[in-house]
Amino acid sequence: MYIFLGSESEPVMEALEREYTALNYGVRAMAVNLPGFAYHKALKARKNLVAALQSAIDERRKQRKENISSKKKDMMDALIDVQDENGRKLDDEEIIDVLLMYLNAGHESSGHTAMWAAVFLERHPEFLKRAKEEQEEIIRRRPPTQKGLTLKEIREMNYLSNVIDETLRLVTFSLTVFREAKVDVKLNGYVIPKGWKVLVWFRSVHLDPEIYPNPTEFNPSRWDNFTPKAGSFLPFGAGSRLCPGNDLAKLEISIFLHHFLLNYELERLNPECSLMYLPHSRPKDNCVAKVKKIPYSTVKKQE
């Protein structure tokens, strides 16, 4: 919210969170536009989000007209100012579409993956120990004058990167996507006629035992010296549809897990809670847990 709209207002964030939740439930639902169905609720949520963002844009344009400038330029400012080689600027509808997409993609997917990584590590103490030791070693090698993480240090988190990749493989954020055939397409011996909509199931690839032995097992070490073949690791899609935020998402998750492993531990209250699978795989209780502060250790405490 701060990066995109220059706002950290709790009431605004909570309101948008409710609308985005309804929107997410309808994204992968059957397109039944009748009251009570997830798709219908998602359309209403999108209208509410559009109205909220339009109000924010109107206010920003008013401030600019009155020469009231914010302390820091945010994404909305950038979208209002950007223009192509012909001097054309984005209209409000285009700005809103960009904000709608990136606010959602930048929040839900990263938080979802960070949650599962923490859960899997809590279930497997041997992997938790190894991941934590790597982070402690990074702190030990750090010059005493340095404050905070550097990109170089994050690139040295080889095992944590394995943890994140294994989490993305085992709990694919986007289980499925809908695609419309623009031409007749031959797929697995069948012809998909032009205009037909097909459901692409990403997770089946990640659980293929020929690619990943013991595919339902959480094992970050499987990524040691392993590079997946094209089309066999698709947490962010592939080809021209590849998520443009994939590197940013992994960076955010790495930073969160670095601080979490060094300073906290997770204790789920309902570890045997069953799962829900739409719109994304998660415990039905939304992973209710106690987060405990770890007592000060020999590792230099991060400010």
TrEMBL record:
Topology relative to the membrane: Single-pass membrane protein
Cellular component per GO, a single term: endoplasmic reticulum
Binding residues annotated for heme, in chain numbering: 243
Pfam families assigned to the protein according to its UniProt record, in alphabetical order: p450 (PF00067)
Keywords: Heme, Iron, Membrane, Metal-binding, Monooxygenase, Oxidoreductase, Transmembrane, Transmembrane helix
The UniProt record lists the keyword Disulfide bond: no
Molecular function GO terms recorded: ent-kaurenoic acid monooxygenase activity; heme binding; iron ion binding
Localisation per UniProt entry: Membrane
One GO biological process term: sterol metabolic process
InterPro entries assigned to the protein according to its UniProt record, in alphabetical order: Cyt_P450, Cyt_P450_CS, Cyt_P450_E_grp-I, Cyt_P450_sf
Similarity annotation: Belongs to the cytochrome P450 family.
Name of protein: Ent-kaurenoic acid oxidase
Species annotation: Hevea brasiliensis (Para rubber tree)
